[in-house]
Amino acid sequence: MLEDAGVPYQLLEAKRLAEVEPALAEVSHKLTGGLRLPNDETGDCQLFTTRLAAMAEQAGVTFRFNTAVDALLHEGDRIAGVKCGDEIIKGDAYVMAFGSYSTAMLKGLVDIPVYPLKGYSLTIPIAQEDGAPVSTILDETYKIAITRFDQRIRVGGMAEIVGFNKALLQPRRETMEMVVRDLFPRGGHVEQATFWTGLRPMTPDGTPVVGRTAYKICGSTPATARLAGPWPAAPGSLSAI
Fold first, then answer.
1. pLDDT at residue 234, rounded to an integer
2. Which of 44, 153, 187, 223 could form a disulfide with 203 if both were Cys (CB 3.0 to 4.6 A apart)?
3. Total domain count for the chain?
4. Mean pLDDT score, 12-20
């Protein structure tokens, strides 16, 4: 499939994994091999969005952070405004980009097949540089990704369909801790990890919901592709709009 799509890849035996990820040398006896995708990259989505917002502000965009949106007001087949508390904000065009919450906000106007997919992450301070990852590793058994963010290790994964329940479940944390300790035993101070959970917007086939509606709303709800999250789909979705 990768060849058909023109995606470069390498199949590596266990002893060669340490050539691209040196810290795996200590645990190579546990590994059979790996699939390397040399063109894949890892990014910091928080850094990306904050810098993108700063660039947008320089271009004249005004952001209204920490503003609750109560409802979309409509008259006939058009949106008349956005109700935010006692204020009604009007515009020439409206884009719905609420992720997992888009379905509820559009209820009664447009039906879209978007639901939340719950995932978890650990952010771990690095303990020993030579024991930490230098790139990104995906444990295919548990579907957990481990990547390097400067002096932190980010561990993320899981996929639960539990509605909007954002409870932090200890068994999920223990699974992620087990995986990172198994692959990078000297890499991080796991006991100091920050545990987090979030909701990825998902559609039945992973395709983003993009397009104009009868109510003259442009929908842009990037859906998650496997466990990657909606970020990779967002720029392309907005370019289509």
1. 79
2. 223
3. 3
4. 92
Range of the domain at 58: 45-114+203-240
Torsion of CA 137, 116, 168, 124, to 10 degrees: 30
Looking at the fold, whether 217 and 109 belong to one and the same domain comes out as yes
Are 102 and 145 part of one and the same domain?
Answer: no
Residue 205, amino acid: D
Q: Do residue 10 and residue 67 come from a single domain?
A: no
Q: Are 154 and 146 in contact (CB under 8 A)?
A: yes
Q: C-alpha distances in angstroms, 130 versus 36, 57, 172, 195?
A: 20, 40, 27, 24
Beta-sheet strand order (sheet of 144-149) = 136-139, 144-149, 152-160, 115-125, 194-202
Q: For residue 116, what is the enclosing H or E element?
A: strand 115-125
Q: What is the mean pLDDT of the chain?
A: 90
